[in-house]
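Rotation project, supervised by the postdoc (A.L.). Task for the rotation student: set up a whole-complex structure prediction and record inputs and outputs verbatim in this book. Inputs entered:
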Amino acid sequence: MRERVVVRIGTVDFDPGAEFRLLCERTGGAGGIGSFVGIVRGEAGGRAITAMTLEHYPAMTERAVRAIAEEAQRRWGLLGVTVVHRVGRLVPGEQIVLVMAAAAHRAPALAATSFLIDWLKTKAPFWKKEHFADGTAAWVAAEAADEAAAARWR
Amino acid sequence: MRLLYFAWLRERLGRAEEEIALPSSVRTVGELMAWLGKREVPGGALFGESGVIRAAVNQELAGPETRLSEGDEVAFFPPMTGG
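Outputs recorded:
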């Protein structure tokens, strides 16, 4: 039985190439795979960042992320979805999140990729805290633009 | 009832979780937030600021009208910032 939806939450890094090959193996016949990798930036608002901490709600996270991935699978009839999201302490340049959507054609693959990352930002229980070079830290504020991006998929 | 707090709400309240006895007057998430907002604890007033805090009941996102039962796990947190 080939799994349509694969979700993994954890502290360990991921290999996008390896995940891509695994998704290809799971979804023979896909005409295209859309993908997005989120990476920790080195600055926020002009201030240098030394690290980012991703807090989450362990009992809820995997279920919430899986529900988003299954929603994408249903809406676009995807042949396969992979979502990997890291938690814990990450430094600039490290990968945070991977989403991949395999479909028969490019339009659903690309649309589903956008949908997945938009909904992950606003509907899955993750919270980012940025640690600055001067020793201070601040929780990342939810952006109205992110809410608007998520809302366009309703 | 078990309450969980995350991110800056957890820091402002100074705790990640607590057990409460659900008052009989509290039947919904909105009523629970109003009740928590009246407690004189550090950060307690945050519950009274409308629209700031989100909730989940038994690990599902919930709104102010969501009904509560004594055995529920209720989580409160700021708007999510994943991805």
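Student's summary: Chain B has a mean pLDDT of 93.
Supervisor addendum: Residues 2-77 of chain B form a domain with the Ubiquitin-like (UB roll) fold (CATH 3.10.20.30).
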